[in-house]
Amino acid sequence: MKRFWTILYTWCLLLLLGCGAVLLFTAPREETYSESENRLLEPFPPLTASSVLSGEFSASFERYMLDRFPLRDVWIALSGDVGSRLSLLSAADEVKLAALDTPIDETGTELSEAASDLPGSAPAPSPKSDDGSGAAALPEVASGMTIVTHTPSQAMARAPLTDYNKDKDLERADTVDVKLIRTDGSETVINQYKKFYIRHAASLFNRLLKLLPEDGHVYVALAQRGEHVIQYTAALDKYTAYVSEAEDYLEPLLDERITVFRTMDILEPFIRAGEYVYFMTDHHWTVRGAYYVHKAMMEAQGRLAVPLEDSRIQRQSGSYRGLNYKKAARLLPKGARDYVEMVEPSIPYAFYRVTNITNLKEYTLNDPKHKGYQAVLWLNMKPWKMIRTYENTGRKMLLVCDSMGMAFAPFMAYYYDEVHIVRPHETYYSTKMAGGTIKQYIDHYGIDDIYVVQSNFFTWDLYRDTLDRSIGD
After folding, report:
1. Rounded CA separation 343/354 (Å)
2. Would you tell me how many other CB atoms lie within 10 Å of the CB of residue 408?
3. Which has the closest alpha carbon to 454: 281, 293, 257?
4. 248 beta partners
5. pLDDT tens digit string along 13-24?
6. What does the alpha-carbon distance between residue 125 and residue 35 come to, in Å, rounded to a whole number?
7. pLDDT of 281-303, one tens digit each?
8. What does the DSSP assignment read for 95-116?
9. What is the pLDDT at residue 241?
């Protein structure tokens, strides 16, 4: 009997090793795009002595293998369908869960309280047909809409967080809320951020400022995710305001030359007017949402914002189903469809991918090979991008962003001679991949101002830790 089990275990081990070898030698080595997940799958990591000794290879290889198992999309879709059928959650509850950037166990008891106030079947803004095909689309820009001039957060007493070591910061339990205000004045908490994460972010913003010349400035716009916004917009008659306490906690920790903008304060009037500023089935804002945030940032600096119609806007053919489509579909008006627009400045410009800090290769501004948000400013191009204009403003900027920044960046070309873009995410950026640190890049190109446009900066460590390692100060 003992021999039988030995033989069985040996064959099982050989079978597993054989399957692993087949997978290893047949799986694509380059990064490939996953339609079902709307992202690039992990490429095979470079095998070098330094990457092995540092542990970077093993971590990257694990992500590669998780992204490459056979029939991956089929299994993911099947597990999602089975999970939906077995779930006791309503469609509204599923959207609520999708909106939580932090793990559920970090939200404590707020989940059950918030879920009881989800919009459910409350009507969303009525869609309008725009192409004669009978397919409903989302509202266009409201004609005659009064544009609300936004000012940044009210001035608060500043005590900048400097010489900060996050590993020695042991106060990690306190949180701030993101909440909806009901018509009766009561509140529904829909998300929470750890103050520890905000302190870490504040220290990074202060460090970025120190890389700039004396007249340089850092502008911060922390975008809300679409899952949160759809929860609000699907029940505008039930809620009167969307409030984030994160900016209140963040701003006093920053240097005076860092300005914080509240993106939902900027966009809320347009949301209530029925404008298409966020996708309904995806977590990104649209080109129009990005435009209004950019406009508020420019006007707060005393600059005249370039009208939206002065840029070239091209809508992709066909509708767009974002990553949250299955969870959000039952909350949407029947026949409503998302669509993707791409924007180009109307002024002369050139767009480059930048590698090794100094190597430039020219591309079209948007990616014609892809549909959906993936096409906007070559979403997953790495490690640096640059829009070079001929405006002779005498100033250059760096945009530190996640994917939200792709729709934002083209509008900045009207105000700077060069718009440089970096996405501090370990999949798309590292000092080795970039050929140097962010400080070296800023010094080489003579960057004057930094804009931070992020959506996940107060949740996972991924963006902050990558930026932390890459600043190079």
Report:
1. 21
2. 27
3. 293
4. none
5. 787 777 666 655
6. 28
7. 899 999 999 999 999 999 999 99
8. HHHHH--S-GGGSTTHHHHHHT
9. 92
Q: Which of 265, 294, 27, 55 is nearest to 154 (CA)?
A: 265
Dist CA 243 CA 263 (whole Å): 11
Tell me how far apart the alpha carbons of residues 77 and 139 are, in angstroms, rounded to a whole number. Answer: 31
What is the DSSP secondary structure assignment for residue 444, as one 8-state letter?
H
51 falls in which pLDDT band (50, 70, 90)? low
CA distance 26 to 71: 13
What pTM, to 2 d.p., does this model score? Answer: 0.74
**Are β-strands 217-222 and 449-454 bridged in parallel, bridged antiparallel, or unpaired?**
parallel
Residue 391, CA distances (Å) to 213, 347, 418, 445 in order: 21, 8, 9, 16
Answer whether 467's CB lies under 8 Å from 202's CB: no
pLDDT tens, residue by residue, 63-74: 777 666 666 655
Which two structure tokens, joined as six digits, stand for 151? 């000012």
Q: At what angle do helices 226-233 and 263-272 cross, to 10 degrees?
A: 40
SS3 328: helix
Strand arrangement, sheet containing 217-222: 258-261, 217-222, 449-454, 396-401, 418-422, 384-389, 349-355, 359-363
257 phi, psi to nearest 5 deg:
-90, 15
- Whole-angstrom distance, CA of residue 222 vs CA of residue 114: 23
**What letter represents residue 116's amino acid?**
S
Contacts of 366 (CB under 8 A, 6+ apart): 314, 342, 344, 375, 376, 377, 378
Three-class SS state of 303: coil
Q: Which two tokens stand for residue 184?
A: 């009766």
